[in-house]
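Usage

Read records sequentially. Each one opens with the input sequence:
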Amino acid sequence: MKRKDDRSCCTAENDSSCKVESIISVDERGQMVLPKDLRAKMEIEAGDKLVLTSWEKEGKVCCITLIKAEELVDMMKDKLGPVIMDVL
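and closes with the structure output:
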């Protein structure tokens, strides 16, 4: 899925912001449920792949983020495409 401007939503040059979407619970099996309205807003459907990224501070994970796998692929193409073209 490409965006209108052909860039990922997760790039620094976009006017994006971070906000709390919801509070979710982890059950005894370690599973979490993404709220239906958030799944709809992100166009997440059954079978979609999500990439979990984490940030560490002082050796402890302090933040995790979910990114649609296709968005991450697009981000990597945007960043590495010019480098690969320079190498070739």
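Summary fields computed downstream for this record:
- The chain has one domain: 1-88.
- The longest helix spans residues 69-87.
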